[in-house]
Amino acid sequence: MKVCIAEKPSVAREIASVLGATTKRDGYYEGNGYAVTYTFGHLCTLFEPVDYKPYWKSWDLNNLPMLPEKFEVKVANNDGIKKQFRIVKSLFDKADVVINCGDAGQEGELIQRWVINKANYKGKVQRLWISSLTTEAIKEGFNNLKPSENYDNLYYAGFSRSIGDWLLGINATRLYTVKHGGYKQVLSVGRVQTPTLAMLVNRFKEIENFVPQPYWELQTLYRDTLFSYEEGRFLKMEDGEILATKVKEHEFEIVSITKKKGTEYAPKLFDLTGLQVYCNTKFGFSADDTLKIAQKLYEKKAVTYPRVDTTFLPNDVYPKVNGILSKLTDYATLTAPILNKKIKKSSRVFNDKKVTDHHAIIPTGMQTHLQYNEQQVYDIIVKRFIAVFYDDCKVSNTTVIGKAADVNFKTTGKEILSKGWRVVFEKKDTSTAPNVTKDNLLPSFVKGEKGPHEPSFLEKQTKAPNYYTEATLLRAMETAGKQVEDEELRDLMKENGIGRPSTRANIIETLFRRKYIKRNKKQILPTITGIQLIDTIQNELLKSAELTGTWEKQLKDIEKGEYTASAFIKGMKRMVDALVYEVRSEKVQTRISAVNNKPAGKPKAKAKPKSKTQSLVGSSCPKCKAGSLLKGKTAYGCSFYGKSCDFTLPFSLGEKKISEKQYIRLITKGSTVNLKGFKVKGNSQEGLLRFNDNFKLKFEPKQTIKKPIMKAGDVCPKCKTGKVLQGKTAFGCSNYKSGCDFRVNF
Fold first, then answer.
1. Kind plus residue range of the DSSP H or E element containing 653
2. How many other β-carbons are positioned within 10 Å of the β-carbon of residue 369?
3. What is the pLDDT of residue 617?
4. Which of 136, 151, 653, 742 could join 718 via S-S bond, C-beta 3.0 to 4.6 A?
5. Which residues contact 522 (CB under 8 A, 6 or more apart)?
6. How many Å apart are CA 365 and CA 344, to the nearest integer?
């Protein structure tokens, strides 16, 4: 009998249906010469300290460091897990061959190997290695089963990672808790979580301690186009003022116009981190939310394996592209232009050298019913996939240089000549021309033309760096804390990132769970406890993102067979030994207690009792006052509609849906707030709704108030007798000494 072991019951069910093992048994499926069983994630775990030595149960400095000679594995202490393990072992005892069907990654390999080893199975083991759960992929995988030995290095890397986390996590957590922990406070320290927390604390302190520095910018407005001083900002006001005075006295002249054609490539396919960053930025999903959604899409056969760190595809996927695109019938309008010709093959997409265990996340072609959040994630994965087979976007970049009194100014603009892949991401909007769009469109300038201009000399201040969001934190973890915008360079640095793509979301969630960090809308801020913990840890290696990145590199080298697991574990033991010696000799200044385990910031005001929300349905008709409002198929209307009253409120107006809340505001306060998205004569406009005299809806475009242009010497708009003076940071009135407090900051 062939025994297959999958990582989840749902995956086992898919595999069993393909293999014809259709009889459901307790803990497995059977049929056609196969038994397909499963784990529930980790059936087996590493020994706890007490399993090695009974006295290691005590959290005592004298027991540290705890460095087992040999690391052992046990079945998790849970009745359901123990029962499933007995079922798995009984199947292994009858097996001719075991087929490891775990998730095709480091964690999946580790989970199944531990079970196989703990069950003391000594027979033949084969490995199923697939990137999607479609029937075709499963069949192809079983036709190409690999010897288990091919994945030994992957197992050694996973085992080393787990031991490294045990050694540092358990020893350091006990060490700092006993030495520096206060009332009811466990101080959790980890190989990846602590450097991640340190990045957040360092950024928080950088912002808190930031002192803005003034600088000055010289600009001028010519033909409604803003030109900036070519050599940038001024750090001394006097330097800029001299030029500002100089240019006022001369006309502006266009010196040169340079147009340069360029190419913009389609966005790369998604790896897991890229998908998490996009979904956090666009949809506000946490990294953990995105991973869970991507995993569900994988299990629903809609996308390929998500826990990946590459944005490339291997060359053997290219012949399958046509078939995948053809099956994406919901996206037929986007796929039709590329299916009608030979599909483009680019080295920016297909590169065998950039693919290891798995390729980038792409759709399988299987379309199924998805929940709203799943559909959002699926939609962007599909569109990225379609876009890479479109033509490149062609642009024309324009640079215009002008001068006034030999002082050069510059402005730039971009014209999109051919949209190419951009059409895939366009919203349905017929108001855009089909082939040419403009970004920062410039007027038509002619070299040598001259004219009046309006120079301005403005004082500004440097800004502090931004707080981390989940998106920017993921990118920082990917590059071990270094700020890297360039995609190619970021790819090169992934080997030294903090954590793995599949574990980063869990690391962030762990920090939230332990109350070391908190959310402030999209921002992630450290709590008082998180800051105190990082301040308490004097050992810089524990907080070093670069050191953690080096460990990640070593683990990847173990996967490749270029470094040994024993060398990695010995290195970790040496570090833990030195850490314990160092921290035990530290003087305790303060202890971190659970009372501080609250978010930093103002205490919340007492919650006001919620008032009952007003409902539109059942309220009095604002027109006749006699009827009450009812909800129909397309509108709200008066209960006397068709008899004595014609009042209605349509669900949408000008292709814009109007919420019940806005209609309640209209009835109670006379208008809605300004809303975006009304279509007026084919154009999208912002405005509000009111009633006319007959209680019909009327649209009022948003009123824009133009600020009057002010200059020195004008009559003071407040006292009407003084003159406007221009100071360093604001305009003021010449009568300020006699009581006029007019002031307008720049």
1. strand 652-653
2. 7
3. 80
4. 742
5. 280, 284, 469, 470
6. 18
* Angle formed at CA 321 by CA 317 and CA 322, multiple of 5 degrees: 145
Q: Which CATH architecture has domain 161-208+469-585?
A: Orthogonal Bundle (1.10)
Rg (CA), the chain: 33
Of 147, 142, 127, the C-alpha closest to 19 is 142
Both tokens assigned to 194: 């602590």
**Amino acid letter, residue 10:** S
Question: What's the pLDDT score for residue 507?
Answer: 93
Q: In this structure, what token pair is assigned to residue 270? A: 């998604």
Q: Tell me phi and psi for residue 234, to 5 degrees.
A: -110, 135
Phi, psi angle pair for 237, to nearest 5°: -60, -40
What local confidence, expressed as pLDDT, does residue 298 receive? Answer: 93
Strand partners, 408: 403
Q: Which pLDDT band, with edges at 50, 70 and 90, does 552 fall under?
A: confident
- List phi, psi (to 5°) of 382: -65, -45
**Interacting residues of 78 by C-beta distance below 8 A, sequence separation 6+:** none
Q: CA-CA distance, 285 to 509, in Å (whole number)?
A: 13
- How sure is the predictor about 70, in pLDDT bands with cuts at 50, 70 and 90? very high
Please check whether residue 119 is in contact with residue 24, taking contact to mean a CB–CB distance below 8 angstroms: no
Q: Is residue 246 a contact partner of residue 332, using CB atoms and an 8 Å limit?
A: no
Write out the residue limits of the CATH 2.70.20.10 domain(s) in the chain: 214-266+394-461
Q: What's the CATH number of domain 2-144, 1.10.1740.10, 3.40.50.140, 3.40.50.720, 3.40.930.10?
A: 3.40.50.140
Q: Which residues are catalytic?
A: 305
Mapped onto helix, strand or coil, the DSSP state of residue 50 is helix
Give the mean model confidence (pLDDT) for residues 251-255. 95
Token pair 């400095």 in the structure block, residue: 61
The DSSP symbol for 442 reads P
Q: What phi and psi values does residue 232 have, to the nearest 5 degrees?
A: 90, -155
Q: Does domain 214-266+394-461 have CATH number 2.70.20.10?
A: yes
Contact indicator for 105, 7 with CB cutoff of 8 Å: no
Residue with tokens 């007995």: 86
Question: What is residue 493's three-state secondary structure?
Answer: helix
Note every long-range contact of 430-439, with CB atoms under 8 Å and residues 24 or more positions apart, other chains counting. Answer: 430/682, 431/682, 431/683, 431/684, 438/413, 438/414, 439/413, 439/414, 439/415
Smallest CA-to-CA distance from 158 within 100, 115, 117, 111 is with 111
| Main-chain phi, psi angles of 420, to 5 degrees | 55, -125
Q: Span 272-389: which CATH code?
A: 1.10.290.10
HEC readout, 138-151: HHHHHHCCEEHHHH
Residue 621 φ/ψ, nearest 5 degrees: -65, 125
Give CATH 1.10.290.10 domain extents, the chain: 272-389
Range from 83-87, 381-385, 650-654, 724-728 carrying the lowest mean pLDDT: 724-728
